[in-house]
Design a protein that fits this description.
Number of domains: 2
CATH architecture of the largest domain: 3-Layer(aba) Sandwich
Low-confidence stretches: none
Distance between the termini: 18 Å
Radius of gyration: 21 Å
Bound molecules: ligand T4K
CATH class of the largest domain: Alpha Beta
Number of helices: 13
Shape: globular
Structural class: alpha/beta
Strand content: 15-25%
Order of helices and strands: EHHEHEHEHEHEEEEEHEEHHEEEHHEHEH
Number of strands: 17
Helix content: 25-40%
Largest sheet: 7 strands, mixed
């Protein structure tokens, strides 16, 4: 008889550095009383990220959503942008806030990223860019998208909110496309409480992004563009610096959890796992997605999501519903039938994964899933 967990197991739990280390960092802030507006800790964090990504074309923000909004504005993107409906709603909101029309096209069935063929078919004279998402930490079809963007003279922008630390061969994932936006939200495998980052190819954009995130101020007396306030503060930067030190350890622990889930779930009828990624990809295991086949498993993903709660396991239905089905986007005309995206959104469940999740807890979660299959369909 499997007992419910005493404490809730959420889909994620943020990594925190040892409290004493963070307290020591806070002492510097207490001494200088420099809290925000490009303070010394933010400058240090920016430099560490420049070293980490081996580029100076980096700009930090108070969250990923504003980073993406500013990216689109600073790059002058307009008209139509081809994008995925299978993402967190902020991807599309960033387009909306720039008065850009989202053109939703389907995803591919293995890793749930934009289907390049569908992208190419949706290009019109108004298309200015492709906004693709490396969803769950899976790299998009990088070469195919780059080829389409080059042939049609489109900007290629990646919502890289899920892929901090991912490498493809010996390249960082940020080396692909014209620009990548990373989220440092607390729920991400790397975080700074909240935060966002842009990494971009064109060096000239740095000045524009710096203005846009700081009201457009050039100096005390000159405002050169109508910017907003999207600055990262010193406490966020401090958290970012301290979490970065543990990144390898965090990813290794997540990898072990991912391996165990895959080992235990591969034999459960009706549970589909993402195919193994190429060994040249260094993954970050940001999420643990499973697809639930209702007929074979014996219950739908929605029913499994509800049942798991009875054991105090709080999985999430990321990303159901599709963004185009939210009330605020229902008036956007969608020509693509989105066959794969609709099937995947109906079947998908993301299971708990975080560095401090015990392997014994993963075993119990898998036992619960197996027992639900046996009770309902086995
Ligand atoms: N693009 C993509 C593809 C994204 O996934 C996101 C964000 C963005 C853009 C925008 O980036 P940001 O502007 O956020 O930087 C969460 C996150 O808030 C959001 O950042 C994330 N994607 C999205 C996928 O997930 P919710 O509404 O599901 O979060 P919430 O509060 O329900 O948290 C999930 C679970 O995590 C909770 O059940 C418990 C645990 N948790 C959460 C927080 C905040 C903790 O244990 N501690 C915490 O502090 O959106």
């Amino acid at each position: 008889m499997i007992k419910p967990f005493e404490k809730p197991i959420y889909v994620t739990k943020p990594f925190l550095p040892p409290l004493e280390e963070f307290r020591q960092g806070l002492e510097e802030i207490w001494e200088t009383r420099w809290l925000t507006n490009n303070g010394p800790i933010l400058q240090r964090f920016t430099q560490e990220l420049c070293d980490f990504f081996e580029t100076d074309n980096i700009c930090l923000f108070n969250n990923g959503t504003l980073a993406l909004q500013i990216a689109l504005q600073g790059m002058g993107i307009s008209g139509e942008v081809i994008t995925t409906p299978f993402t967190f709603v902020a991807t599309t909101h960033a387009l909306f806030w720039n008065k850009i029309r989202p053109v939703f096209v389907d995803i591919e069935p293995d890793y749930y990223t934009l289907d390049p063929e569908k992208v190419e078919a949706a290009i019109t004279p108004w298309t200015t860019a492709i906004l693709a998402v490396h969803v769950y930490g899976h790299p998009c079809k990088l070469n195919a998208l780059a080829d389409i963007a080059r042939r049609h003279n489109l900007k290629l922008i990646y919502d890289a909110a899920h892929v901090f630390g991912v490498k493809v061969g010996n390249k960082s994932i940020a080396d692909f496309g014209d620009l990548s936006m990373f989220s440092f939200h607390a729920t991400k495998s790397f975080h700074s409480l909240e935060g966002g980052m842009l990494i971009f190819r064109e060096t000239g954009l740095k000045g524009v992004f710096d203005y846009l995130k700081n009201f457009g101020f050039k100096n005390e007396f000159e405002v050169v563009m109508p910017g907003t306030n999207a600055k990262m503060n010193e406490i966020q930067a401090l958290m970012g610096i301290q979490v970065l030190k543990y990144l390898d350890e965090i990813i290794q622990k997540r990898a072990k959890i991912n391996d165990l889930y895959r080992h235990l779930l591969k034999e459960v009828p009706g549970i589909r796992l993402v195919p193994a990624l190429s060994p040249t990809v260094r993954q970050n295991h940001a999420y643990m997605p499973i697809e639930v086949d209702e007929q074979e498993f014996g219950m739908s993903s929605d029913a499994l999501y509800e049942k798991l709660k009875q054991w105090n396991v709080h999985s999430r239905r990321y990303f159901y519903p599709l963004v185009c089905d939210y009330a605020c986007y229902r008036n956007v005309s969608v020509k693509d039938p989105l066959t794969v995206a609709r099937r995947v959104a109906d079947r998908l469940l993301t299971l708990p994964i975080y560095d401090s999740l015990e392997l014994s807890e993963v075993e119990t979660i898998c036992e619960i899933i197996m027992s639900l299959h046996l009770e309902n369909g086995g």
